[in-house]
Amino acid sequence: MDWEAVLDRLSAFYGRGDWRTPYLRDHAENPFQVLIGTILSQRTRDEHTDLASAQLFARYPDADSLAAAKPSDLEPLIRATGFYRVKSRVIRECAEAIRTRFAGVVPRTYDELLALPGVGPKTANCVLVFGYGIPAIPVDTHVHRIANRLGVVHTKTPEETEERLRRVVDERYWIPLNPLLVQHGQNLCRPRGPRCDECPIEDLCATGRALRSGRTPPRPEDGPGPARSAGARPARRVSDRRSRRAVPTRTGTRSRRQRTRRGRTRPRPPPAGSS
Ligand code: SF4
Predict the structure, then answer these.
(1) Once rounded to an integer, what is the mean pLDDT over residues 44-67?
(2) Centre of ligand 1 from the C-alpha of residue 207, in Å
(3) Predicted confidence band of residue 101 (pLDDT cuts 50, 70, 90)
(4) CA–CA gap between residue 171 and residue 158 (Å, rounded)
(5) Which domains does the chain have, with CATH numbers?
(6) Is 152 in the pocket of ligand 1 (CB under 6 A)?
(7) Which of 189, 197, 203, 212 most suits a substitution to test ligand 1, by most atoms within 8 Å of the C-beta?
(8) How far apart are CA 207 and CA 225, in angstroms?
(9) pLDDT of 129-149, one tens digit each?
(10) Catalytic positions
(11) Does ligand 1 have an atom closer than 6 angstroms to the CB of 66?
């Protein structure tokens, strides 16, 4: 993959790459706020993260002040992000660990970051990249999905994608890779219905090339299904009433009602260390 071309074209297409919410973008030099803001951003929209971050850091700007707060003081400030009770407890514990184990300074190594409460691979890599400017590849659902659609990885999980990307992408491209792919994933290369006909890297993308030539795109093992664009025929036609209602499973099909009864469509709270 010609990563220079991919990143250059996406950078030109999206302008300055201001993909991040205003608060996090304007406080990217503060590793503590990048860390806590990234935990808050789990399973919520950017604007909710932005609001909660601004309210939280106005009163608790560092590890010492946040560690001294009660979760009940934090909950109303971060309520907009959802799962606010879990997140209040986790961010307070994280601040406490930074205060006691690292004298209030966010560590700058992957392993030390990963040992903090509420910190998983993506959050650790976000702190390295956006807090300290250290090359790393934060892999969220956007990066995972697009890397598979591009055809540079064939992976099941973001963790596998990160491990694979670290081997195949030259380190000089690591820092800009996440911001540009996230922005691309939020705009054109969406989970459903990617707009390949408007994409500036279509000719470099395995999915885009396949769709343009009328072939079935390569499907990531856990991906959202074949991409579709204007004029492209889905790989599997869904035309009759029964098949529209059926949901494929490993052992057959079951209806959407059955699936909803089992609760699979309900979001779960973010487990500590899963980000
Ligand atoms: S061509 Fe389509 S699938 Fe490939 S990166 Fe662009 S929008 Fe995504």
Answers:
(1) 92
(2) 6
(3) very high
(4) 18
(5) 22-132 (1.10.340.30)
(6) no
(7) 189
(8) 11
(9) 989 999 999 999 999 999 999
(10) 122, 140
(11) no
